[in-house]
Specification:
It comes from Hypocrea atroviridis (strain ATCC 20476 / IMI 206040) (Trichoderma atroviride). The protein is of the alpha+beta class. Among the domains are: 114 residues, no CATH class; 189 residues, no CATH class. The protein contains 14 helices and 30 strands. It is globular and about 95 Å long. The termini are far apart.
Length: 635
């Protein structure tokens, strides 16, 4: 097999030797080859090579081969299993030749061996086409895919915000999480920051990839109390004035305008991320339960407990809504006879939306269409068109309580997915199904009868109407048996895979068919930020990832193995990295110790050891005296 991309300088080495070198090379050492030769590194990162290794080591292929051995042990390695060959065996030119060989006893001839080799090669090509999760035009790094699917994984805990007052140190809990790419990821450094509201009303920024500070360290923190409803200096001890701990999607970031929007009860607070100061406040009639992501030139979709609103940050709110409400007769009559129409608003008969997604455009992941999908603690996923808002265009029946939504600009067919899972489509049929249809995939994760429910819906465009095209559901798949034993809390796209977190403390990766599991990882417990505990090392102790996002860089070209999974547990932020060792530890964020403080701590430790020895000696003395009946009286 000839390796693509071979330059003339590397032609002196045969392909077999290069393949053997790469097969014995640790995948994590390939990224270090850049120090030796960039061309050698590029050769070792060949997409076709790592795509084949992903296929051969995939659980999908292992299950397929095991199923074939059970069904037909003698024919599993000889004949391709596409639908055309099964319906018409004589259509293949090798069928008659094979019978003639068996009749003449020439099945061990060189020609027969070549035919079997060609048949095996066709079967391998067909299997790889059925497994291939990528779509035409989709950019994937198959080296990163191999590491994410088969390499070791580590859980890294980002630096924990703390407050020190009167000599006492306490942890400040994070109440949400979203990624911030300054200038849309084109700042020249590839900066990626995590934005989170803290429990004391402040805002914290973490450097995820270490472009401006230590990886995982806190880059900046705002003043406290700025996210409280009454502002700094007020009585904000009540939970009703703080960020609601039950709202998962409470942060939305505008990367180009350097703004972040935080849902605080029924208020939407706009923050300047460069100055970490409040810019504006907008109040709604009911508590905010979900926020959509912000894309360019698209209004923010705000979900309240009883309705859906469209909020355009470019259109400044009326002063009466920003200022503190006053009970004044003039204001009452002014509001009654105000000719300004009310903002569009879609009421909900079933309350509490928890996840809102804007459908992406084909070929542009950063751009979105006019379609909005809303899910929550109700049995249907609602579809709105921004041009016809607040009319409900249609709905998708789920039957489960959906906690999270994700979308990809690629089609999904449940029938094709089931046939491909058994490896029965030919390579031409798979290519035709991917290229000949346009559509979207909507992924939903939630709860059904106390178990995890992973649902995939195929969406397509219906017949055009005078305004535009409507969406329709043409296929669906619901995995409520093997997805998770606990409720699915958050779902996201990670490369060519679906990743989700469940209520059992695990993060799982599935193929895009929603049925084949690739790998799983248990988050565990953050040992470095807590005091020693008797129960900390128990297997049942562990954190839950309430929200997960992919850290894929938005600038090109991407660095190999640079797409990790950032998660929020409801209190802390963590990062799943695909590395042999953790990227950082909690002690890496500690300040350099003061020599005087070290001496004082050593003296305190020595005194504690002496007291422990004295108490042990006294206890031994009491036990010894008890042997002579001189111990303390009993009863």
């Amino acid at each position: 097999m000839a390796l693509p991309g071979r330059s003339s300088r590397w032609d002196v080495l045969p392909d077999e030797i290069v393949l053997q070198i790469i097969s014995y090379l640790d995948p994590f050492h390939i990224t270090r080859l850049r120090l030796v030769s960039r061309k050698l590194q590029k050769l070792c990162l060949d997409d076709e090579l790592w795509k084949r290794r992903c296929f051969e080591d995939s659980s999908w292929y292992q299950r397929l081969t095991s199923r074939r051995r059970l069904i037909a042990p003698s024919d599993s390695d000889d004949e391709p299993r596409d639908g055309a060959a099964q319906l018409n065996p004589e259509a293949s030119g090798d069928a008659g030749a094979g019978d003639e060989e068996n009749a003449n006893g020439e099945e061990h001839s060189p020609e027969a061996a070549q035919r079997r080799q060609r048949s095996h090669r066709r079967q391998e090509i067909q299997d790889m086409a059925n497994w291939d999760p990528s779509f035409p035009g989709e950019r994937l790094c198959w080296y990163s895919e191999y590491v994410q699917r088969n390499g070791p994984a580590c859980v890294n805990w980002l630096q924990t915000p703390r407050i020190r007052e009167r000599g006492v140190e306490a942890i400040i809990e994070a109440r949400g999480m979203e990624l911030y790419y300054p200038y849309g990821g084109n700042d020249g450094l590839g900066t990626m920051l995590a934005v989170s509201p803290l429990d004391d009303g402040s805002i914290c920024l973490w450097d995820v990839k270490g472009t401006r500070n230590k990886p995982g360290s806190i880059l900046a923190t705002s003043k406290s109390d700025i996210l409280f409803i009454d502002g700094p200096g007020s009585q904000n001890t009540r939970r009703s004035k703080r960020v609601d701990t039950g709202v998962t999607e409470c942060v939305s970031v505008d990367n180009h305008r350097h703004r972040a929007y935080f849902a605080v009860q029924s208020h939407l607070i706009e923050i300047d991320l460069e100055r970490l100061e409040v810019v504006s406040r907008e109040s709604f009639e009911w508590s905010i339960t979900a926020l959509s992501k912000i894309q360019n030139d698209v209004p923010l979709t705000v979900g309240t407990s009883l309705g859906i609103h469209l909020f355009d940050p470019r259109a400044r709110a009326r002063p009466a809504q920003v200022a503190v409400e006053r009970v004044d007769q003039n204001d009452i009559f002014k509001s009654i006879f105000d000719p300004t129409p009310l903002l569009p608003y879609a009421p909900l008969s079933q309350p509490t939306p928890v996840s809102i997604v804007h459908l992406p455009l084909h070929g542009a992941s950063d751009l979105v269409s006019h379609d909005i999908y809303v899910a929550g603690r109700f049995s249907n996923i609602l579809h709105y068109d921004r041009r016809k808002f607040p009319v409900i265009m249609d709905s998708i029946y789920s039957g489960a309580t959906v906690n999270s939504l994700a979308a990809t600009p690629h089609p999904f067919s449940c029938l094709d997915s089931e046939i491909r899972r058994h490896g029965e489509l030919s390579a031409e049929q798979v290519a035709k199904s991917k290229e000949g249809s346009e559509g979207w995939t909507l992924v939903a994760g939630g709860t059904y009868k106390s178990k995890g429910s992973l649902e995939i819906f195929g969406l397509s465009q219906a017949v055009a109407d005078p305004v535009g095209r409507e969406m329709m559901q043409n296929s669906s798949m619901k995995n409520r048996q093997t997805a998770a034993s606990a409720p699915i809390l958050s779902v996201a796209n990670h490369g060519s895979k679906i990743v989700f977190s469940d209520g059992a403390g695990s993060i799982k990766w599935f193929e895009r068919d929603g049925l084949t599991e690739c790998r799983r990882l248990r988050i565990g417990h953050c040992e470095g930020d807590d005091a020693p505990s008797l129960f900390a090392s128990m297997s049942a102790a562990g954190e839950l990832a309430r929200k997960i996002v992919s850290t894929k860089s938005r600038e090109a070209p991407d660095q190999p193995n640079d797409d990790n999974v950032l998660f929020w547990t409801g209190e802390r932020l963590g990062l799943v990295s695909f590395t042999p060792r953790p990227l950082y530890h909690s002690k890496d964020f500690e300040d350099e110790p003061d020599p005087d403080a070290l001496a004082e701590e050593e003296e305190r430790r020595r005194y504690a050891d002496q007291m422990r020895e004295a108490l042990d000696f006294q206890a031994d003395e009491v036990r010894y005296m008890n042997t002579f009946g001189s111990g303390p009286p009993h009863g």
